[in-house]
Specification:
- The structure is a single chain.
- By secondary structure, the chain is of the alpha/beta class.
- The protein folds into 2 domains: about 190 residues, Rossmann fold (3-Layer(aba) Sandwich); about 140 residues, 3-Layer(aba) Sandwich (Rossmann fold).
- About 45% of the residues lie in helices and about 15% in strands.
- It contains 12 helices and 13 strands.
- It has a 5-stranded parallel beta sheet, sandwiched between helices.
- A hairpin with a 4-residue loop joins β11 and β12.
- α5 crosses α6 and α11 crosses α12.
- The longest helix has 26 residues.
- The chain is globular and about 65 Å long.
């Protein structure tokens, strides 16, 4: 009898363990890698995106996690360095064994790290804009959340050529992977429109004075300057050089031209005039002076985290960071697990997923999820709480 009692007890323990095992597995955290350049010359976007990422993680965990599993956010500061991005991507993939990676923030880093994450088979939400980061064959689990670089450049080119009626273009870009690729793409797209740039320069993002480049562009007869760089310091120095030489040529280009950090760098406030950049409908004030309702709701939640005063970061970066984590949640809930193949299939089947920054959709052959309809041209000196008015038409 004693032996039978012990046997029944052992069986009961084993049964209990079998029942608890799925629950224990279910409670295991979902590891989300976040490759973010929080320091360095290209940090302005990452700092803003990080605010949105952190808020979304906190909200999801407070609500019970994803399918009962909390998110564990593993943030790695790449400092804008492709070598660091590679090292951290390998660490996240092979040591930390994350379930998904967001980033890197900058395209130059993404060029180096995306192939590593693809070889590891890890789903990767791309927030770099250049075309080479997306390939459904080479990188089947890489899905872009941000717009493409061609959407930025095409929107800016259209405004420069068809609205401002400019044809003598000077292109100035930085020497990063993003800058060099963008200068090439911008030139090719202009030439397809029948316009050959009359001056092109690649500049180290840490260069302290761009007077020489602006003087050369002016001497070449440029009637518009189109900069392609995410380095706000460099863009601020470009606007200062334009103002200091008394040349009121329009400056039209990268969204970072509108960053609040630039306002703080300008020698004179008026140096921000006649400056326009590719932006987004989701962070553009309407004729009634209001933002879209979803954007305003997120802004109201974020304001206390950003000091309760004016929001002095580009708010679309905050919105995109927030959306990336919500897309992770959507993919895992749709897949029913963190299985990489199932998450890939879930995202491939996603249509009209409504975020704050955009409404997204992907397919088995299309990995660019951002619609053309959400692009806009903004006037830089209308900055208010990280959003803008439409550029004049």
């Amino acid at each position: 009898m004693k032996f039978r009692s012990m046997k029944h007890g052992l069986l009961a323990v084993q049964a209990a363990m079998c029942l608890l095992a799925p629950l224990a597995a279910q409670a295991q955290p979902i590891k989300v890698g976040w490759l973010s350049s929080l320091t360095g010359p290209l940090s302005s976007a990452a700092i803003a995106e990080n605010q949105g990422v952190q808020l979304a993680v906190e909200e999801i965990n407070k609500a019970g996690g994803i399918n009962g599993r909390p998110i564990e956010l593993l943030t790695r500061d790449t400092a804008g360095d492709p070598t660091k991005a590679v090292n951290f991507a390998q660490q996240l993939a092979f040591s930390d064994k994350v379930h998904v990676v967001i980033g890197p923030v900058n395209s130059g880093e993404g060029l180096a790290s995306t192939p590593i994450l693809a070889r590891a088979g890890i789903p990767n939400l791309i927030i770099g804009a250049i075309d080479e980061l997306i390939d459904p064959v080479k990188y089947p689990r890489a899905f872009r959340v941000i717009n493409t670089n061609k959407q930025w450049i095409g929107t800016a080119n259209d405004y420069a050529v068809n609205t401002l009626k400019k044809s003598k273009v000077a292109i100035i870009a930085d020497t990063s992977g993003y800058g060099t690729a963008s200068a090439k793409t911008a030139q090719e797209m202009l030439e397809k429109a029948g316009i050959k740039p009359i001056y092109t320069a690649l500049v180290d993002p840490n260069k302290t004075d761009l007077t020489d480049e602006m003087m050369k562009a002016k001497a070449a007869g440029a009637d518009i300057v189109m900069p392609w760089s995410a380095a706000t310091g460099l863009l601020g120095r470009l606007l200062n050089a334009r103002g200091d030489i008394g040349w009121n040529v329009p400056v039209v280009g990268h969204p970072a031209l509108m960053a609040a950090q630039i306002r703080k760098l300008l020698n004179k406030p008026e140096y921000w005039q006649n400056t326009f950049a590719a932006g987004y409908r989701s962070t553009t004030y309407g004729a009634d002076g209001k933002l879209p309702a979803a954007t305003q709701a997120l802004l109201d939640k974020m304001r206390p985290r950003l000091g309760n005063g004016e929001v002095d970061v580009l708010f679309w970066w905050v919105a995109m960071g927030y959306d990336t984590v919500k897309i992770v949640e959507h993919a895992i809930k749709t897949a029913g697990s963190t299985d990489p193949a199932a998450m890939q299939k879930a995202l491939e089947g996603t249509r009209e997923y409504r975020g704050i920054y955009a409404t997204y959709g992907w397919s088995a052959t299309e990995r660019n999820g951002f619609p053309d309809s959400n692009m806009a041209m903004n006037a830089a000196n209308t900055f208010k709480d990280g959003s803008f008015n439409l550029a004049p038409r």
